[in-house]
Amino acid sequence: MTSDKTALRAQLRSLRRKLAAAAPDAGQRAAALWPGRPGGGIVALYHPAGSEIDPTPLRTRVAAGSVCLPVAQSRQGALIFRRHMTGEALVPDALGIPAPDVSAAAVLPDVVFAPLLAFDRRGGRLGQGGGHYDRTLAHLRRKKTIFVVGLAFAGQELPEIPMEPHDQRLDAILTETEYLEFG
C-alpha cells in the first residue's frame, strides 16, 4: 500500500500544481461557499505550502480572534495549534512552515481545515505522506469532538482513496465549486 500511495502522491502533486496555476482565485471561491458551523468556535486554518489551496480568504468567514494555525514542534509528533491574528508575525516551525511563535496561546480547535493531495466522497483524504494531520486529528479526536474539513481544488477528487487503519477521515470537503458534508 505504501508504494502505491508514494506513486500516487507524485502524480497528485503534479496535478495540484496545474490546478493551482489554472485557478489562482480558488481560495476566494471556496471561502464564499463555506456555510460556517453552528456556534463557530475556534477554527484552525493552515499556512499554504507550495500549490496547496490558500485558506486565508476563510478568515473573513469566521469570528475575529477565533483563528488558529498549526505548529509542528517536531518532525514526528502531532501538531499543536496557536491563536493567530491577521498581521501577527509568523516564524518557521520544525518543518519550516510559517507558524505563530510560542507567545501565542495554545488552543484546541473545534473546526480544522486540512490541506490534502486528494479526497473522495466518503471522506477519504490523502495527505503529503508525513502523517502530521493523521496524528494530529487522532490526538484531537481523543480530547474532544472536532469537525474536519478538507480544503482542495475540485480536480483533486478521486473515486476512492486507499485508506489504512491510521488514516483519519474528513467530515466535509470544501472546494472552489462545492461544499459537501459526509454522513
Count the helices. How many? 3
User: Main β-sheet: number of strands, strand sense, barrel status?
Assistant: 8 strands, mixed
The CATH class assignment is Alpha Beta
Distance between the termini: 26 Å
Identify the strand order in the major beta sheet. 6-3-2-1-7-10-11-12
- Give helix and strand order, one letter per element, not per position: HHEEEEEEEEEHEEE
Kindly report the average pLDDT value.
93
- How much of the sequence lies in strands comes to 15-25%
Question: Rounded to an integer, what's the Rg over CA atoms?
Answer: 15 Å
Q: How many domains in all? A: 1
Overall helicity: 10-25%
Tell the overall outline: globular
Segments where pLDDT lies below 50 for 5+ residues? none
CATH architecture verdict: 3-Layer(aba) Sandwich
CATH topology: Rossmann fold
- By DSSP, the count of extended strands is 12
Q: Helix/strand/pairing class, anyone?
A: alpha/beta
Name the CATH homologous superfamily. NagB/RpiA/CoA transferase-like
